[in-house]
């Protein structure tokens, strides 16, 4: 996810999947229902980290930071590095 709008839509989808009411999630996260509604609809220019983390905690979600253009697990990254090393050394590892 790269935008607040995408993040808001993901939060809304999770809340719907859990069949939770917006007002209840907002209350548990310490927000107004209006604030959560605007966030879910992508109608915010800014949204504080504390608010976001509170919402994610209520919904059992977590924020995962990744380097743009890179993905994968640690094991996948190790395999990629290993393969790159084999190529650099004439096929020997």
Top keywords for this entry?
mainly alpha, 93 residues, 5 helices, 0% strand, 59% helix
Indicate the topology.
Elements: H1 4-17, H2 22-29, H3 33-40, H4 49-58, H5 74-88
Helix pairs in contact: 2-3, 2-4
Question: Can you give a write-up of this model?
Answer:
- By secondary structure, this protein is mainly alpha-helical.
- Helix content is 59%, strand content 0%.
- The chain has a domain of 55 residues: 434 Repressor (Amino-terminal Domain).
Quick recap of the structure?
The protein is an all-alpha fold and 93 residues long.
Please outline the major beta sheet.
none
Distance between the termini: 36 Å
Going by CATH, what is the homologous superfamily of the domain at 4-58?
lambda repressor-like DNA-binding domains
Rg calculated over all Cα atoms: 19 Å
Overall form: elongated
Percent of residues in helices: 55-70%
CATH overall fold name of the domain at 4-58: 434 Repressor (Amino-terminal Domain)
Task: Name the CATH architecture of the domain at 4-58.
Answer: Orthogonal Bundle
The average pLDDT score comes to 88
Number of helices: 5
């Amino acid at each position: 996810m790269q935008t607040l709008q995408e993040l808001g839509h993901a939060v809304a989808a999770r809340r719907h999947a859990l069949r939770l009411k917006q007002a209840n999630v907002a209350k548990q996260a310490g927000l107004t229902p209006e604030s959560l509604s605007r966030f879910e609809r992508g109608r915010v220019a800014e949204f504080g980290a504390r608010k976001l983390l509170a919402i994610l905690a209520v919904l059992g979600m977590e924020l995962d930071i990744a380097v743009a253009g890179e993905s994968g697990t640690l094991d996948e990254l190790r395999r990629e590095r290993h393969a790159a090393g084999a190529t650099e050394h004439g096929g020997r590892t």
